[in-house]
Amino acid sequence: MRRSAIVHQAVAFTLLDPHVYLDMGLLVGTLGTQQPMPLQGWFVVGAGTASLFCFSLLGFGARRLAPWFARPRAGPAGGPLAPASAAG
């Protein structure tokens, strides 16, 4: 698959996700309007930085943990919190 097709799919997946608009518009917007006017700009900077950090950690962490999740025991049947019927 070409790189441009991958980028287009990633952008479409991100921008067509309704949770993006719910989280940013409602949750962060509501919290931001509760801040005093002089601090609202700093709130936007902090929320953006936290979002960038969170998604970067998620992306790089997924790459690093991919071999661990590829093992057969990484599934829910091998975990200590799995229901007894899933353990076999």
TrEMBL record:
Q: What are the UniProt keywords, alphabetically?
A: Cell membrane, Membrane, Transmembrane, Transmembrane helix
What are the transmembrane regions?
Answer: 42-62
The GO biological-process annotations, alphabetized, read as: amino acid transport
Q: Which InterPro entries match?
A: LeuE-type
Q: Localized where?
A: Cell membrane
Membrane topology of this protein: Multi-pass membrane protein
Q: What is its main location?
A: membrane
Q: Name one GO cellular component term.
A: plasma membrane
- What is the designated name of this protein? Uncharacterized protein
The scientific name of the source species is Malikia granosa
